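Assess the record.
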Amino acid sequence: MVDNIAVLAPKSHRIVSKIIDTSFLKTLFEPLGFDLKRAGIFVTPEEYGSLAILTSTITFFFTSVVGIMVFSLLFAGNLFAGLISGFMVGIILSIIIFISFFVYPKNKIMENEKKISAALPFATYYLITVANSGATIVQLFKILSNMSEYPTIAKEAKRIVFEVENLGHNIADALKSASDRTSSQSFRDLLWGIRNTIIVGGDLTIYLREKANLYLQEYKRFLVKYSQQLSLLVEIYTTLLLVGSIFLMVLTMVIGLLYKSFFIPFIQLVTVFLVLPLVTALFIILFKTLSLEG
């Protein structure tokens, strides 16, 4: 997803800038600049905003056309009802898509942080083994960068090695740069500790063993908290969405028998085809956000 944004955002900016003045996008999306970098999305706020505008516009036109055709058929050829329903669906979805662009960088940062936190105890124990073999700090991170089991940490380690071997930075400066850009506070503390150990000349193995034990305890506490949150969300989903939607459908059917109105079938269709899928999608996103893998 991040790589796709890096490719599509500049192209979207070139397209949108030919149609409208995009200077307002820089102001609107400027607060996201730091979050974009921390999330690994290396595009300008203006380019990111152009992608948001273009995606929302395409979503509006596509969903409106499809919605008009579908709702016109559902309302027995009533084109007016189909137009209203189709445009409402298009507007709602396009607004949701546009807002999601503001939320995505922070969600990506949280996702990376969760992935790093989940892998950090085991990666740190692995570093202890490598450090005991007498490997240098650069070799230690080079080995870590090739570990497919921990892709997020491996990506961070790869950038450290790149700065040392290709940009000519010393390892202390490379660790400082990595700690400034990482999304994980735990990984930031680990990098700063390794850097201080290098500068002061302490025992790296002892330091890594202490941090590994600490991270493992945090990981266990996270597992307990996650299981409690998951149980609560499942109960909310079952009660609110499933039972609530059935109750609403029965209630509207009873009202529909008493009062013939256009809004009764409209409410039912919106509930089934729009509200239920959207709420389900939101719960899926919430489950994913709370999960160990982000």
The two ends are 14 Å apart (CA to CA). DSSP finds eleven helices and no strands in the chain. The mean pLDDT is 84.
